[in-house]
Amino acid sequence: MTNSFPTWIRLARSHASVLMQPLVEAVVTMFAVLATLGCTLAIAAGSGPAVLAVVLTLSLSRSHLDRDLRGRLEAALVLPLVGLVAIGVGMLLRQLPWVGALTFVAGMFVSIWLRNFGSMARRAGHLIALPFVTLLTVPHVRAAANGVLPPMLVPIVVALLSLLWVTVFHVVARRLGLLPPLTAPAPTAATPGQESRLRPTASTRMAIQMAVALSLSFVVGYQCFAERWAWIVLTAFIVHSGNRGRLDVAYKSGLRVLGAAAGTVLAMSLSFHAQASPINTGLWILAALFFGVWLRPLGYAWWALFVTLALALLQGFEPQPPGMLLWQRLEEILIGAVIGLASAWFVWPVRSTDVLRRRLADALAAMAEATDPATPERSPARVAKTLDELAGMAAPFRAARRFTQGFRTVQPADWVDTLLACRTAAIEVIARGETPGRLRQAIGAARKSLREPDTLLPALQQLRQTLDG
Q1: Which of these, 34, 104, 106, 182, is most buried using a 10 Å CB contact count?
Q2: Which residues form the Integral membrane bound transporter domain (predicted)?
């Protein structure tokens, strides 16, 4: 008991530090949501524009398209056009469902495929995807006819309002020191001979996988679930978003099902208290979104739970009994997850270990550059960024390690944990401007071992020992 007490203290402090920054980000995001929502309700009646305002604000806050003046101008120019396209797709989904589904699939394919063409095309893909995600949450977003603005202009104005308030609150929070300053995305280092052998490229494969998953979801949804097809399509979309390979999709599929099940059950209990009051329902939805944004860094299951809770409260349980809808929605979520998993596993699959080795290569390349005496300006910023990206891939591999311990001799999760353990020492060395020869040799040996899984872990362990020394 005496020895375990300091451990508990350290764990509590660690969790507190992990939660504090996401808490600040969640508060800033919800202020932007409330400001956008207030302006939207003042100019447009109906629930459609309000939902559009909330979804766009959450998406823009997370994607950081307001990173700089150029990003804001690009978003301000493209968002109105994208909003008009969303109106057209929404009308097609309502009046010509199969044509709308085909257009929806094509739009999502293009938004992912554009990642092949540089950072500007990647940002354009993010903007294209925003309204399509909104259509999944509420398929027929449209404004009431008695609003201040013509219904055709409402999505355009709402999109610009969301961009305005996200920018305002992010800038203010950074000026006050509540949020860290955003830096320009660092160019990723090329991995010799690794990505060039992948044909089609990873982005193209993921775009094709998304298109297949969405197509199957629309077919199954339209044929078997009539008006409730959106839950299947939404789940297939979610498990493929940010696809980092087969293992990542399998991991998110499981968390999506578990989180959605818990969220639906929780929504069932809340609906009995909230269904008589739209105001109470709205407050529960905003609270669910806040906790989802805050706790998302701790695990995807939290996000799935609270987003499902918000969607269930938004769409309501009428006119069917809650118990029947509970099982229906869980069934649709499970079907969507299975479709998404099958698409990732059998349609030009991307191995998660290949994606992981690319992230390891990027991190080691950043370390090599930052410790190279020939580099004129050495900064730990890029090293920290690549290690953050590597940490974002860790959860599925750690989960796989729990189930395969003793059956597999090579555990990719060990690669991740060993290199992440080098973070503090590496950043300190780089910040002091040191370029030790032994450290450069250890980094070079680890980079050479990337092609040999059996030797990679010893090389990374040697790198850690060198840094600790």
Answers
A1: 104
A2: 216-342
